[in-house]
Amino acid sequence: MRATLWFLAFVVLLYIGACVALYAFQRSFLYFPQPSALAGPDTTRRLAVEGAELAVSVRPHSGPKALIYFGGNAEDVSQKLPWFASAFPDHAIYLLHYRGYGGSPGAPTEALLKSDAQALFDLVHAEHPDVAVLGRSLGSGVAVHLASQRPVSRLVLVTPYDSVVELAARQFPVFPVRWLLTDKFESWRHAPSIRVPTLLLAAEFDNVIPRWSTDRLRTRFADGVASLSVIPGTDHNTISNSPQYLEALRAAL
């Protein structure tokens, strides 16, 4: 009997220890900062925010149109600059390096990513009245929140999710993830207030963001606001390689 009690106590302590470790290191599971491969005075702009100056990969262009891009959790957005510049020659391009990524100082958190996104939008909107926003994977949560707070003209969400906390809860079902997570990225909370044309792009074989999460997010928008397009033969990391991906973006933007 005593041995059983000791064993149960050990299991409880082990479980509590695992919960503490999950709470303490949770952001290391969510963010994977990358250095910038393409950085130079002609392609990098600094964004002054509270406590930091962030790097923004840019392709300047005069005119009313601009495109802001928020990347995935392990993405060096600077590598996308030539692609976006070629695909959208009539847009000024702004690709945000999150805190800790690509020469931006600090460490990323949900609150900081969202406030930094608003600061970037305000800077861009002062120069370009027609600002489209594109968010991929983790960045889709940043983009949804921004579109609920600022007058974006169009919104595109690539491999988006309904809620990061819901994804984590299903991945770690034995832990009280909903209590432990601080960065929840609950896009479903912000989608209902968005009124601009919104396109959700899903990969047919996405092995990172389950299809049910993308489908659930689409239902959160008001009727007639959001549409869903599935890019065939692609997964989470190859969706942008498909010609149909570029076609869908051009049609939306």
Task: Explain what the structure shows.
This protein has 253 residues and is α/β, with parallel strands linked by helices. The chain has one domain (31-252): Alpha/Beta hydrolase fold, catalytic domain (Rossmann fold, 3-Layer(aba) Sandwich). It has nine helices and eight strands. The chain has an eight-stranded mixed β-sheet, sandwiched between helices. β1 (44-49) and β2 form a beta hairpin. α4 packs across α5 (138-149). It comes from Hydrogenophaga taeniospiralis CCUG 15921. Residues 85-174 form the AB hydrolase-1 domain.
| Low-pLDDT ranges | none
Q: Quote the distance from N terminus to C terminus.
A: 69 Å
Mean pLDDT: 92
- Could you give me the name of the CATH homologous superfamily? Alpha/Beta hydrolase fold, catalytic domain
Total of DSSP H or I helical runs spanning 4+ residues: 9
Strand content: 15-25%
Count the domains: 1
Features:
about 250 residues, eight-stranded mixed beta sheet, globular, Rossmann fold, AB_hydrolase_fold, alpha/beta, AB_hydrolase_1, single chain
In short:
The chain is of the alpha/beta class and 253 residues long. It is built from 9 helices and 8 strands.
Helices and strands, with pairings:
Layout: H1 2-24, H2 26-30, E1 44-49, E2 52-59, E3 65-70, H3 81-87, E4 92-96, H4 110-125, E5 130-136, H5 138-149, E6 154-158, H6 164-171, H7 177-180, E7 198-203, H8 211-220, E8 226-231, H9 243-252
Parallel strand pairs: 3-4, 3-5, 5-6, 6-7, 7-8
Antiparallel strand pairs: 1-2, 2-4
Helix pairs in contact: 4-5
